[in-house]
Amino acid sequence: MTTTHDDQDWQVPMPPRPCGADGAMRRIGVELEMIGLSVAAISEIVAARVGGQLDKQTRYEHRISGDEAGDWGVELDYEYLKELGRQDKPDDELRELIEEAAERVLRTGAETVVPVEVVSPPLPLARLADIQSLIADLRDAGARGSGAGWSYAFGMQFNPELPDLDGETVLRYLKAFFCLYDWLVERANVDLTRRITGFSAAFPGDYVRKVIDPDYQPELPALIDDYLAANPTRNRALDMLPLFLHLDRERVRAVVDDPRVKARPTLHYRLPNCEIDRPDWGIHLAWADWLQVEHLAGDHGRLDSACIAYAEWLDKPVSRLLQNWAEEIEPWLVTATGR
Fold first, then answer.
1. Are the C-beta atoms of residues 39 and 116 closer than 8 Å to each other?
2. What is the full DSSP assignment across 252-289?
3. Which pLDDT score, from 0 to 100, does residue 93 have?
4. How many angstroms from the chain centroid is the CA of residue 329?
5. pLDDT in the model for residue 4
6. How many CB atoms lie within 10 A of CB 223?
């Protein structure tokens, strides 16, 4: 084990509201992208870590069942190859040989630049410790992440459930995220490839200014309408479309018909880097930063104060030239969130 962070003993720090409205611990889904290992090798590591059974659905898509939280997925993030893997082989022997040769050429190229993605089921928050250990297993087996090459734009994604699904709670998380966005980006140290590709785009400035106004307190339908008017896209650092689709399917589908948007009662937070090959990197870093959003969203007075300060900063062009909001927000941070 080369990891410097103590993966086996990491105790997951909890947000102020660790349970949902039903009293059960909130859940979170995690997605990790990497290269350096095949779909088969990664699947075996995941199955060993969670004690699951491996189901090789295609050459490029595997499922691991048996976890009480649900199935894990491991797949090559390349839709054309995945589709080839799903197809039945042709009857004609010569045609089969030609197609298999073409697929091998595609696969050889793809596996050097296209990541394999590990997708967890919705896990109770305490089981982020399992993700921490899985990252160490994958690293020790040779997985590589964003830092392995200039062209490797690999990321990680969180899908955290909210403590409530009412409009007020959703709005507070959105306000808190906007206040902390610059700080989160600075902490993430977004690599050049992610910046060039525009991955996890920031929200439009006019929309951010609208939402952080303390007087902006819409009912849920109006909140969804305003979001869709300014953000009819999946390409946002905090993608609200899955949550809003879960809450009001017809309203969202009237504007966004992208089949890739799936309804779920979670936020969809796209983190810019997956640095799985770094010995000191783990889920604990991003989780500690996300907990700042949780704490700010859960403290009404502190959130209102941060929103007012951010609005004043945005309204002063000179301040924006001379000051760094990632530093200005620090008085609203809490200590000891787990980094």
1. yes
2. HHTT---TT----SB-EEEES---TTSTT--HHHHHHH
3. 54
4. 23
5. 45
6. 22
Cβ neighbours of 190 (radius 10 Å): 18
Q: What's the confidence (pLDDT) of residue 104? A: 55
Place of tokens 């979001």: 227
Number of neighbouring beta carbons within 10 Å of residue 1: 11
Nearest Cα neighbor of 219 from 179, 254, 251, 242 is 251
Query: pLDDT averaged over the chain?
Result: 85
Half-sphere exposure for 243 (CA within 13 Å, toward CB)? 27
Rounded Cα distance, 66 and 52, in Å: 5
| Position 79 pLDDT exceeds 80 | no
Q: How far is CA 257 from the centre of its chain?
A: 21
d(C-alpha 26, C-alpha 19), whole Å: 5
250 has a pLDDT exceeding 60: yes
Distance CA 130, CA 285 (A): 15
pLDDT tens profile 304-328: 999 999 999 999 877 667 789 999 9
Distance between CA atoms of residues 259 and 263, nearest Å: 10
Q: How far is CA 289 from CA 66, 140, 284, in A?
A: 31, 25, 9
Burial (CB count <10 Å: 0-12, 13-18, 19+), residue 191? buried
Let me know: does 268 contact 159? Beta carbons within 8 Å: yes
pLDDT band for position 2 (50/70/90)? very low
pLDDT for res 274: 87
